[in-house]
Structure formats: structure tokens, C-alpha cells
Amino acid sequence: MITLYHYDRSTAAQRVRLLIEEKGLEWKSVIVDTARGDVDQLPENYHELNPKGLVPAIEHNGRGMSESTILLEYLDDAFPETSFRPANAEDRADMRRWIYRIGDGVHVASRTIGVCIVNRFIYLEQGKKKIEAYHSEMRDLVRRDNDKVNIAMGLESPLLPDALKTFKSLFADMNDRLADSGWLAGDSYSLADIALVVYLRRMESFMMAPLWADHVHLNDWYARIAARPAYHKAVVEWGDITEAKRTEHGRGAFDAIEKLWNA
């Protein structure tokens, strides 16, 4: 039995849940939601599972593991009956190239956009002392330092323009690739698709979908994945407890974001 430590709207957790559901694996859910500054609700010794104190993490066969993109490959190795890696070496390399972009700026950019548009308001509601305690316990120092700037400055953050450029480039590159192929890494649905689809979901939740409305191939790809039963179980059914705030603040930020997106 896999034990997954996660929470509803985490993109990193969503991709791991999506692969678990695609494989039809049995799993136990443990909610660890520190996204609103609740550092006191971490399970005991959680940092032994994930040194950064973030999600997701899994326990399986008596071992703890973390980092969502690593977990995708681990689960595909541990449960190989249905593999989500391409059959040939060239497409597998392409799959890893797409996944590499997550750690090469995309995930940090996603965090910046989320905090600037929505999460800063959620944090500010918690009060200064709680957020200071949250940051004092944060072991990912880039995340901590970026958060401080983005919470304070919001849409005026100097980090926001480059974060949006990262996403604009990613979506354009994905659209170009999908013009020539049904999936990101060849002719089969793979870990690359599972790893990256969550960012469309995230940006859509901020009411930003009009920004890439002309990306026909990207939107078709997203619709095909969203129609999969596993996606519904892994993403839609888990919902998002911040949905109302994402809608409200996303709509309020759209004009400013659109201007930066098109700059």
C-alpha cells in the first residue's frame, strides 16, 4: 500500500495522484496542507520523508520518498504493468526533457504567479506572526525569499514578469510540439503529459485561460487529458478549497497579468 502525503490543489501532488489513478493503484491519503502557513500541523518526523517539509511525499515498502518528478519515475518502475514511458530511447529522452523544465524554472514560476495573484491575500489574512513563523520553518530558501517579495508586492513584484514569460514560452513550445504529435513525447500519453498538465489546471484556476486561447493544439491536448477518468479522480474530485479566492482575485488581476503576458 502506498501512503501519499498531499493536499488538494498542490500541482506537485496532483501529478503524483494522476499517475496513481492512471495505474489503478491502492493508496492511503494523508493530508499535509502547509500552504496557508499551518506549519504546526506537519506529521511528526515529516522532514525525514521530505527534507523540505513540502508535499508530496510517499511511503512505500518501508521507505519514504519525495520530489514529485522523481516519484513519477519511481512509481512507473515499481508498478511497471502499465508503463507511462515511451517505448523507444529517443522519445524517453524527449519525455525527460519536458519534465526537466519543471525544475528548470517552471515550478518556481508557478509559485510566483500563484502568490502574486491569490496566495498573498490568504497569507495576509493569517497575520504577520503566523507568516513569519511559517517562513522561519521553511527549508526551501528560494521559496522563502521569493514568497517574502511576492507577498509584499503582489502584482508589482519584480519576479512576476519573468515568471509569466516562463509560462508563455512553455505553453507556446508545448503547442508547437503538439501540432506535430498527439502527445509531448511521441505518440503515447506519458509521464511528460502527466507532469505538465497540472500547470494548465493551475493557470486556468486563476482565470487566465484566455491568455492562450489561440493555442489550439495545447487546448485540445488539455481537453483530452481532462476527459480521462483518472484525471477526474486525481484532480477534479479533490477540488480546491481556495477556489472562490482564486476566481475573485484572478479576475481582478487579469488585466495586469495580460499586459505583462503580452509585453
Radius of gyration from the CA trace?
18 Å
- Give the fraction of residues assigned to helices: 55-70%
Q: What percentage of the residues does DSSP assign to strands (E)?
A: 5-15%
- Structural class by secondary-structure content: alpha+beta
Encode the helix/strand succession as letters.
Answer: EHEHEEHHHHHHHHH
The global form is globular
The end-to-end distance, rounded to whole angstroms, is 49 Å
Largest sheet features: 4 strands, mixed
Low-pLDDT residue intervals, each spanning 5 or more residues = none
Indicate the CATH architecture of the largest domain. Answer: Up-down Bundle
Give the count of structural domains: 2
Q: For the record, what CATH class of the largest domain applies?
A: Mainly Alpha
Number of strands: 4
User: Roughly what is the average pLDDT, rounded to an integer?
Assistant: 94
Task: Please name the CATH topology of the largest domain.
Answer: Glutathione S-transferase Yfyf (Class Pi), Chain A, domain 2
Q: What strand order characterises the main sheet?
A: 2-1-3-4
Number of helices: 11
